[in-house]
Amino acid sequence: MKQWRHAFKLDPNKYLSEEGVRRICESGTDAVIVGGTDGVTFDNVWNLFEQIEPYDIPLVLEVSDMEAVVPGFDYYFVPSVLNSKDKTWVLDMQHQAMKMYGDMVEEQLIVSEGYCIVNEEAKAFQKTNCFPVTEEDILGYARLVEHLFPLPIFYLEYSGKMGDETLIRKVAAELSRTQFFYGGGIQSKEEAEKIQGIVDTMIVGNIIYEDIETALQTVPE
Ligand code: 1GP
């Protein structure tokens, strides 16, 4: 996981043809993450799992609903939304995950992600009842995840919007033990290359459904 530079995120609530799934899985990306904000159900996660599972690629379920946890994934990422006003999204969901699936933690299948959701227009920002963050807030969360509550992943989430490059560089400078995930608004090969030069792992989502050719070009050569 430490070596992942690029991952695609597939939304179980969105349609992608079988051919599209094949091209994503054979693209040379380092991992495929299954996750979304709305309409994530056991059935649509299962359907996507069945399509991806035959390919030789690390497969991650990003858990957003305990009812939609499908067995068989290589990893289960459990997000903790650090800038949520609501404890449910910071701690209670993780607690629930450990109550139900805690035995998997010993096999290192469950991985905690410290999220900071920046884009106020993002569905995830609204669903998890986040408060808007300043640059100082974001750097504070990065330090918190690196030093105080050491977590394996800090996820700077701009979902749907490109982040500020200078700020992304400042976040990267705060993280050494913690793996830096960036996601949001990657719409071209050039943007992908720029971000890949700064963060540990870049996540590409929406563009898969809008323009798969461009999405495939975001994978590093
Ligand atoms: C979403 O961070 C991912 O959770 C990717 O963002 O969909 O904007 O590429 P985009």
From TrEMBL:
Please give the InterPro entries that the UniProt record associates with this protein.
GGGP/HepGP_synthase_I, GGGP/HepGP_synthase_sf, GGGP_HepGP_synthase
Q: Which UniProt keywords apply?
A: Lipid biosynthesis, Lipid metabolism, Magnesium, Metal-binding, Phospholipid biosynthesis, Phospholipid metabolism, Transferase
UniProt GO BP: glycerophospholipid biosynthetic process
Reactions catalysed = sn-glycerol 1-phosphate + all-trans-heptaprenyl diphosphate = 3-heptaprenyl-sn-glycero-1-phosphate + diphosphate
Gene Ontology molecular function terms on file: heptaprenylglyceryl phosphate synthase activity; metal ion binding
Q: Does the keyword Transcription apply?
A: no
Under the heading Pfam families, the entry gives: PcrB
Record's keyword annotation contains Coiled coil: no
SUPFAM superfamilies registered for this protein in UniProt: FMN-linked oxidoreductases (SSF51395)
Name-wise, this protein is Putative glycerol-1-phosphate prenyltransferase
